Amino acid sequence: AQAYEEYTGEVVINEVMASNGTTANDWEGDYSDWIEIYNPSAFPIDISGYYLSDNITDPLKWKFPSNSIIVGRGHMIVWASGKDTVAITGEVHTNFNISREGEFLILTSSDKASVVDMLDPVFIPRDFSYGRFPDGGDS
Questions:
Q1: How many CB atoms lie within 10 A of CB 90?
Q2: d(CA 29, CA 89)
Q3: How many CA atoms does the CB half-sphere of 81 hold within 13 Å?
């Protein structure tokens, strides 16, 4: 992943699991792909209206719903399930899945003008995650 200082520095794509087979299941019991967004600041950040995509030519593919607030130094799990819904439990599901073979992940601001963070394509084996260390770090 690129260092978040190269982008807006608000929140980062912190961790990704592109082939979840047994690690964590969603409210329906499905083992969907997931993306963890991290807020490195000490203050809450509202990312309602931001966009997440797995397609560099379509960065506005999926829009975060209202009340998408990440507490200071907190995490938000977004299920890349293709279900495109907000579950009764509050789980958020995108309209796309992630390829374990690798593809871009792009987080775009609500004004559609700036890339907040981007993850370059990387192969991720089944039931392994790929992420920053430490949380929000450059590596």
A1: 9
A2: 13
A3: 21
